[in-house]
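Record format v2
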Amino acid sequence: MWAWRLHASLPRTATSLEAADWLKVLRWEEVELPKLPEGWARVRLLAAALNRRDLWITLGLYPGIQYPAILGSDGCGEVVAIGSGVPSEWLGQRVLLNPSLNWGQDERVQGERYHILGMPSWGTLAEYVDVPAENLYPMPAYLSPVEAAAIPLAGLTAYRAVFVQGGLQPGEKVLIPGIGGGVAVWALQLAVAAGAEVWVASSRPEKIETAHRLGAKGGILYTEKNWAENLLQRAGSFDLIVDGVGGEVFSAYQLLLAPAGRVVIYGATRGNPPSFDLRRLFWRQNRIIGSTMGSPRNFSDLLHFLTQHQIRPLIEHTYPLTALPQALARLWRGDQMGKIILHPV
Ligand SMILES: NC(=O)c1ccc[n+]([C@@H]2O[C@H](COP(=O)([O-])OP(=O)(O)OC[C@H]3O[C@@H](n4cnc5c(N)ncnc54)[C@H](OP(=O)(O)O)[C@@H]3O)[C@@H](O)[C@H]2O)c1
């Protein structure tokens, strides 16, 4: 089979990157298919999607990188082969892959053997991928393969952050900063469907407009001075903030949180916050809660919720799989909103 293999990382100090730069470290090459282990299935991919994780790995900004690596955590396709012990009903089925591998028995936290599909294990930026059969889920019938591929990593992260860790209740007021992000858009769609009042923060006015079309009540540019004070004046304080941005944006949450309000943090694109007022945090009974990906139960609940509400993903752009360097360059520029999809030609 053919796959994109990563052989090294790009310099993390690079300030301007073009598609040609990724071709220095990524090669579209033929890879021998291994024998299928017991309990595993082979899937011919119909579509894959990118996540910021894929970008971090190409830039060497991820723990435990092993080369050569086939990246890609999101995929949907058709089961073409099964290892021993896998029910034969899976053969020929269209499936969506849960990228959480070996979550373990504890719903509260993943176990020590946990990892994410797409480095170190072989990922979906390829013609085929092998996964444990327990990570196969029937593809939601109301979606196309391109739409379904937009769900797994970002949808799962958003579901757990909003409902499991965030405990969102209908009617609550939610803030989602960095709304251009894949996880953030899913968080917006899930929270709106659950009956919350959702506000967003972004670096671009056009992303706020798109969020408005997806059901957000309002939004603010967090690039503006005093954005948190202005948002507080317009929207009042928030019961829940679901954040993947971090950095100095995070420091503003102490002002924006309602008494007993909570922040769920699933990412830190801008790094650690420069400051946080601990006295205000404990006095107002606020909570900061971490969240990562999700359990098999969370993935199944996500698919059920999406189907029940017939939610369709926001797709920014679709590329042929062979144009991966162009797709990564687009993700790196950060001007996208919604998922970037790759499909085999
Ligand atoms: N814990 C987990 O399981 C998990 C899962 C998925 C992702 N993550 C992490 O969560 C974060 C978001 O992931 P994603 O895949 O949703 O991201 P993404 O699709 O690449 O989007 C990131 C968004 O963050 C905003 N942003 C703010 N500051 C930025 C900066 N300095 N550079 C680039 N973007 C910036 C932008 O939105 P605006 O223009 O609207 O500001 C951008 O569209 C990443 O740090 C990722 O590693 C964690």
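Residues 152-165 form the longest helix (14 residues).
The first strand starts at residue 2 and ends at 6.
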